[in-house]
Amino acid sequence: MKNIGINGYGTIGKRVADAVQAQDDMKIAGVTKRSPDFEAKTAVERGYDLYISVPEREQEFIDAGIEVSGTADELFEKLDLVVDCTPGGVGARNKEEIYKKIGLKAIFEGGEDHDAIGTSFNSTGNYTNSIDKDYVRVVSCNTTGLCRTLTPVKNLCGIKKVRAVMVRRGADPSQVKKGPINSIIPNPPKVPSHHGPDVQTILEDISVTTMALLVPTTLMHQHNIMVELENSVSTDDILDEFEKAYRVMPVAASLGLGSTAEIMEYAKDLGRSRGDMYEIPVWKESVNVVDNELFYMQAVHQESDVVPENVDAIRAMLGLEDEAEKSILKTNKAMNIL
Ligand code: NAD
Hints:
Elements: E1 2-7, H1 11-21, E2 26-33, H2 38-45, E3 50-52, H3 58-63, E4 70-71, H4 72-76, E5 81-84, H5 90-102, E6 105-108, H6 114-117, E7 120-121, H7 123-126, E8 135-138, H8 141-157, E9 159-169, E10 185-186, H9 195-200, E11 208-215, E12 221-229, H10 235-244, E13 248-251, H11 260-269, E14 280-283, E15 288-290, E16 293-300, H12 307-317, H13 324-335
Parallel strand pairs: 1-2, 1-5, 2-3, 3-4, 5-6, 6-8, 7-8, 9-11, 13-14
Antiparallel strand pairs: 9-12, 10-11, 12-16, 15-16
Helix pairs in contact: 1-12, 12-13
Nicotinamide-adenine-dinucleotide binds near residues 7, 13, 86, 87 and 141.
């Protein structure tokens, strides 16, 4: 049983903690918090030992009635691996200033640059690249979504070229100070966006160009994808491949799942923790092959699609499982992923 810690128990960190705790070959040894807020309180209520990143603030936690088990540095000494879920940029600093110095393996999230970490990870795209690695970055929610559906297409019929237009949520649901509230923002206002090169850190040999917009929604991202195919296949072949692919969920708009709002409601009906949707929903009606070009539309639940990938990355890095498929199936079973 491997001891895993979460540094930064926020939107991603709290979900990765629960996903790790649901496995039978790893457990959460503790999580870190900077502030004595509701997430710190619920971490302790969920049974996680809480360690503080800023020791001088211990009295604030005591005053808030939140039990502290020690400092973050004390937690790191107990771990086989830490999952760093701090805001973008902090993880790369932690790598140099903390983890390297104490010889601790670490996973980072999509807010870090690939070059700062060295290896990027997606379960179906390139699992084996991370076996026994010390530092690995689980790519962002958008890149994870693109890799999840492009990998089965690539395996089925080869890819000449990908073009994707990504409609991104303006903020996560709890981010009250972020927008836009009433605007559509080309983000970035240049082409290509950084997402294409990020996909190439996983699927190195495909040509992919992306454009991205921010819109006033907090629920999910939405992607519009055009793929020039190497070999000819039918629309039904692609639909079959999406049905079989891991963590991809073809959905029918005709069943009332024609929007991100209805998909989020469906995730709640599935009884998912926090209403999360770990799979990438692909609208069946949107899948179409015309003159050897594939078109499809998908959604991405930004707060949760990367969570099972973190569990698989832990297995690869700690040598718990050498085969992607075996880890994916084990993680999926423990998390009730369809
Ligand atoms: P968040 O702000 O919700 O959580 C970050 C947590 O880290 C907070 O609890 C914060 O208090 C803590 N923290 C901040 N500075 C710290 C420090 N110096 N030391 C220890 N803890 C610190 O952020 P998030 O949305 O969970 O994002 C975390 C990472 O995941 C980022 O790299 C982000 O790009 C990536 N990511 C986010 C999303 C998303 O939609 N939220 C999706 C995929 C990947």
